[in-house]
Amino acid sequence: MAIQAVSQSTTQGVGGAIGGKSMGRDDFLKLLIAQLQNQDPLKPLDNQEFAAQLATFNSLDQLIGINQKLDSLAQQQQLVGQLGAASLIGKEIVADGNQIALAAGQPSAINYALDAGAARVAIKISDASGKIVRTADLGNQSAGEQSIAWDGRDGAGKALPAGIYSIEVNAFDVAGNKIGASARTHGVVTGVGLNGDQVVLELGAIKVPLSAVKGVL
User: Fold this and answer.
1) Is residue 7 part of a domain?
2) Which one of 10, 56, 76, 206 is separated from 30 by 20 to 30 angstroms, measured CA to CA?
């Protein structure tokens, strides 16, 4: 359907912190040695208390070791995720996302999904600055995946420059109540990267997290 009529860490917190700096095994060992060196010879450290402190230090050392192993495991999982995502390069995917790429002089598809049948669907298209450049009120549509064609023009019929645009989809039932509607991003995977601890797929200039992928077309 074409748009026609439109209107306008890792270990921090394990052993506490002093002055905002995380304390590690070396810090606690230095504190323990300093305590032994400066104890009152007339009131030496109680054996049970000393044993308890040694046990605490040992527990801290084990916790730090566990954290380091968990960090290593997380890095390995990221690598596995990247390698797995690399198999998607060259394939067209559909993912949750509200961005669409417009090429100069070419129409672009607007994709979305409706949780239920709608009596009316309203779509807003905005440019990179957030300005609404096109709106469309569509008729009734059934539940599920939907797609309409956008000719790349604004509400006055002027061709818009190539770039990334965002869409907002709102759906309503016959009583005017809102229905769940999710914008979709379609595109061919051109690369894979990391954003923090998240694997990200590159669809040209658009980036979507691997976790947002709904399917491969």
Assistant:
1) no
2) 10
Q: Which residue has the tokens 């450049």?
A: 133
165-180 confidence digits (pLDDT tens):
999 999 999 999 999 9
End-to-end, the C-alpha distance of the chain in Å comes to 20
Rounded CA-CA distance 151/42 in Å is: 89
Alpha carbons 89 and 85: distance in angstroms, whole number: 8
Six-digit token pair at 206? 């658009």
Residues 26 and 173: their CA atoms lie apart, in Å, by 64
- Distance from C-alpha of 92 to C-alpha of 214, rounded to nearest angstrom: 11
Q: For residue 95, what are its two tokens?
A: 């993912």
Sole residue written with tokens 């007339």: 42
Among residues 86, 115, 143, the one where a domain terminates is: 86
Same domain, 69 and 162: no
Total number of domains constituting the chain: 2
Say if residue 194 is in the same domain as residue 153: yes
Distance, CA of 198 to CA of 92 (rounded, Å): 20
Among the candidates 69, 86, 103, a domain finishes at: 86
Residues 78 and 98 in one domain: no
Q: Are 150 and 83 in contact (CB under 8 A)?
A: no
